[in-house]
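Q: what sequence does this backbone want?
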């Protein structure tokens, strides 16, 4: 659920209704009339805030990604080592996803939809900046093997999503979940770590 206080009540209600319905029925299975009804507003009122369904989808995605960026930034210490920052980035990405399952599911829908292609390259770069900045530093310091940033990003995301999918279905206690996330990170780190460092 989106709880950003800077949003007025009606746009907030629209975004939360859209999130719930998109997660349940997908983009194509969710007409704007149904979103308006779920939000408790007139259909025409929805278009006062979001001119098209595509604009609503894009706004919802940006609010979710902004929330995730803030969450991760709050848990990453710039003074930590590259490995510690990468570990925390991985750990808290999985943790956020488990705590915000509808939001995570929506971002995965968005990723494989035409909406992603309509996002500008500048928007995509901002969404990935925290991760890519760290990967670039790891490459420049030779902490990582000489791999492309795109490959590193793709492999790290695949590992994160795979870990989430396993834990979402496993119904394990929090302590066991934490151990699995940490152990999975160590496997990921070993793939990237440069054995010739130093």
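A:
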């Amino acid at each position: 659920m989106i709880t950003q206080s800077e949003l007025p009540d009606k746009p907030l209600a629209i975004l939360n209704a859209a999130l719930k319905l998109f997660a349940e029925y997908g983009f194509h299975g969710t007409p704007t009339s149904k979103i308006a009804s779920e939000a408790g507003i007139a259909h025409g009122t929805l278009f006062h805030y979001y001119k098209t369904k595509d604009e609503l989808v894009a706004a919802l995605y940006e609010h979710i990604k902004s929330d995730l960026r803030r969450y991760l930034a709050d848990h990453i210490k710039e003074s930590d080592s590259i490995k510690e920052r990468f570990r925390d980035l991985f750990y808290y990405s999985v943790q956020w996803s488990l705590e915000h399952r509808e939001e995570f599911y929506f971002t995965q829908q968005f990723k494989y939809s035409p909406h992603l292609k309509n996002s500008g390259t500048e928007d995509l770069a901002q969404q990935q900046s925290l991760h890519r900045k760290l990967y670039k530093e790891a490459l420049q310091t030779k902490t990582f093997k000489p791999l492309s940033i795109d490959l590193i990003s793709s492999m790290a995301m695949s590992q994160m999503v795979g870990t989430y999918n396993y834990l979402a279905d496993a119904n394990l206690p929090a302590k066991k979940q934490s151990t699995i996330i940490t152990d999975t990170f160590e496997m990921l780190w070993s793939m990237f770590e440069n054995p010739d460092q130093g």
